[in-house]
Amino acid sequence: MQRQTFQQDAFDIARHKLKTGQLSRRQFVAALSALGLSATIRPGAAHAAASEIVVCNWGGAAIDAFRDAYGAPFTKSSGIEVVVDGAGPSTGAVRAMVEAGNVIWDATDGGMTDAAVLGKGGYVDPIDYSVVDKSRVGEGMAAEYGVANYIFSNVLAYDATQTDGKVPAGWKDFFDFDKFPGQRTMCKWVQGQLEAVLMADGVKPEDMYPLDVDRAFAKLEPYLKDIIFWESGAQSQQLLREGEVVMGNIWHTRANLLRKENPDLTWTWENQLIFASAWSVPKGNPAGKEVFEFINSSLLPEGQVTLLRAMGNGPTNPAALALMSEEDKAVYSLAPENLKDVLHVSAAYYAEHDAEVQNRFLDFISR
Fold first, then answer.
1. Rounded distance, CA 47 to CA 41, Å?
2. Could you say which residues of the chain have pLDDT below 50?
3. For the segment 243-264, what is each residue's pLDDT rounded down to a tens digit?
4. Residues 264-297: tens digit of each pLDDT
């Protein structure tokens, strides 16, 4: 069973937009490249030369979006081409490249947890903060082996027609089946799931880690029969769209798509669970230290707002807020009006415990 990442789900969203004519021809070609049907972006076979930097993300419209948001500004200022490889920078792929001495990527778009795991194993280099300006990202977003390039959230999405127009007050209401009858959906992949359960049980964000897994299971067990566990972002969206569930713990980008389809399918930012994606640099990257100049450039607010508008991925540079419209802020996890009793999911915790907690969670929900 393969875990779907947020980035992979972003690709699925882009693929749907291709089918429905919502993407340009140029974006369509980029998506084909990610599937290996064109050599334009050279997925899986891109090699950095002195005149280029190769970054790897999860494909689809994100190829074009990264090129526009991050690549074009850096090329304009430096003259160095940025090539985007949509092959997907899984931790396994990075390990294999480094161990084989055949590294083809200069920077990878993974999570903060991936950065910590790979750094501990010696597969990525520390971020050079003599080049990368820490002040361009928010608090806690500049780690030893990764620096946050965008953020996203798990939110409580709900069907207002099934809640009598009432707005659920965070995860406590998510588990109040008397107040809000009907089935729920949660993700099968554990990050951001037990946190929601524990917040509903009264645990404050500042007391969340280390997770009290036994307490979370005790809170969750009576409701298992009423919860459908989704495996992909598309499935989470479908469950709400078709009325199979009243509420769901889903990615905010999926919730936004639902609301565009049907204003009654919406979400609350209260108790949102915030994640950071991150740039990492594989050990032995072909472009060497030059990649840190690219990473520093990618943290400028203008490009990050471009990415928000293209993909829904939120800026990590606090200065980006001043460049946003009210429409932008409405889908931005870190907009001040959206930060009510929130939790920043701990990459450090999951770097140490993800496999163990994930396996326990799968065993528990399979009872």
1. 11
2. 25-26, 28-50
3. 999 999 999 988 998 999 999 9
4. 999 999 999 999 999 999 999 999 999 999 999 9
pLDDT at 23: 57
Residues near 124 by beta carbon (within 8 Å), at least 6 away in sequence: 94, 108, 115, 118, 145, 146, 280, 281, 282, 283
State which amino acid sits at residue 26. Answer: R
> Would you call 55 helix, strand, or coil by DSSP?
strand
CATH topology of domain 152-274+340-365: D-Maltodextrin-Binding Protein; domain 2 (3.40.190)
Of 68, 74, 67, 24, which is closest to residue 46 (Cα–Cα)? 67
**pLDDT at position 233:** 86
Query: How many other C-beta atoms are found inside a 10 Å radius of the C-beta of residue 66?
Result: 28
CA-wise closest residue to 169 among 335, 341, 345 = 341
Beta strands 227-230 and 184-187 are parallel
The pLDDT assigned to 8 comes to 63
Q: What is the pLDDT of residue 58?
A: 86
Three-state DSSP at 342 gives coil
Token pair in block for residue 310:
């293209």
d(CA 293, CA 297): 6
Q: Where are the beta strands (DSSP E) in the chain?
A: 52-56, 81-85, 107-111, 124-125, 147-159, 184-187, 227-230, 247-251, 265-282, 343-344
In the chain, CATH 3.40.190.10 sits at 6-151+276-323, 152-274+340-365
Q: In which residue are the tokens 């430096």 written?
A: 78
What is the signed CA dihedral for 35, 40, 43, 48, rounded to 10 degrees?
-170
Query: Does CATH place domain 6-151+276-323 in 1.20.1300.10?
Result: no
pTM: 0.83
Q: Which residues contact 311 (CB under 8 A, 6 or more apart)?
A: 10, 61, 62, 65, 253
> DSSP characters for 252-314?
HHHHHHHHHH-TTEEEEEEEEEEEEEEEEEETT-TTTTHHHHHHHHHTSHHHHHHHHHHH-PB
